[in-house]
Write the structure tokens for this entry.
Amino acid sequence: MTHIIAPSILSADFGNLQRDIEMINQSEADWFHLDIMDGHFVPNLSFGFPVVKAIANHAKKPIDIHLMIEKPDIYIERFAKEGNAAYLTVHYEACNHLHRTVALIHSLGVKAGVSLNPHTPIAVLVDILPFVDMVLLMSVNPGFGGQSFIEHTLLKIKQLKEIIDKNKYPVILQVDGGIGLDNYQQLLSAGANALVCGNSIFSSPNPMETIKKMKVFNPNI
Ligand code: DX5
Ligand code: ZN
């Protein structure tokens, strides 16, 4: 399987949202990545159900929803339904009963992801990895687009990739934050197979062309 490119809608032009959604529909991107922020788990607010629903109405590719919110269980069913979610990712740091939350996501027919903040070690995943479809490693402190990639994430990608391979888990390894044309190949070489990109796509002169470039992986680089 080739790698997945998931443009983050957080960096889209919200005054021209339908235009930007159509751009992604037409592009070689694989998924729509939707960042939901509650002002508690992260120091920022993003968008809620009406916007998620509007995006789902126009999106022609799978929708990957990243919940940066406290008490995600309360809202999971609505995000699954109104957002027509293919993947719902919750944060390890926000879930006291992560196994139950993952089961709730699965009960709605949605694939489940677990995300780790930059300071959270890979080791905490050991007893949830057999139950999840995706792990999202944050490579910036979540809350804002356009931040710089934290280099230490490369080590975490390699650690996680080793565990996934050793156990043959069918888990997608997604990385989110500060990813662009200058570093995406390095992340793929380290073992990532899904990349979330906001600023580097939407602020580029030709977003469709940038996505096209990011779909090319040359392991010799
Ligand atoms: C950060 C979000 C990311 C963000 C990525 O809190 O989870 O998805 O939008 O944006 P860039 O690619 O600009 O770092
Ligand atoms: Zn995200």
Q: What stands out?
A: The longest strand covers residues 85-91. The helical segments are 17-26, 49-58, 76-82, 98-107, 153-167, 184-190, 199-202, 207-214. Residues 153-167 form the longest helix (15 residues). Strands lie at 4-7, 32-37, 63-68, 85-91, 111-116, 134-138, 172-176, 194-197.
